[in-house]
Amino acid sequence: MGHPLRPGNAQDHHPRRPHPLSARLPRFDETVQYDVIRDCLMPEEQIDGVYSSESAGIALCGITNRRVILLDTAFPGGRAALITAPYSRITTVSYVSSEDEPIFSRTVAIQVGRTFYEVTCRGEEQAAEIHDLITWHLID
């Protein structure tokens, strides 16, 4: 006699819903930046988007189906670092704004462990794409 059907069993699994931006993916600003992210992909990893950042430290934000990749140009010692943040390690994604800015600003903060990485986008639409792509991966 089998076990009763429990939530989460394979028989009860709903198909993964497509990402709301899937018809327009992958998104990217510049081919050179896209190539940086493409060159560090693992097998079966796909790029959802690659975005330039105007932040002081983070110059590039790549979003794949498995992780977020950040190019930190303000790494200690005058160096740059390509940072990998698997979705399992990202705890929050949020909009960051000052008092005089709307809450849906052009800056997105990504929390990995106790560290926050800020990505300042070229516009609010780009920030919304980053926020929504990461959020979709976190809650799906």
TrEMBL record:
Pfam families reported in the protein's UniProt record: bPH_3
Domain YokE-like PH: 43-134
UniProt-listed SUPFAM superfamilies: PH domain-like
Region listing for Disordered, in residue ranges: 1-24
Domain of life, source organism: Bacteria
Protein name stated in the entry: PH (Pleckstrin Homology) domain-containing protein
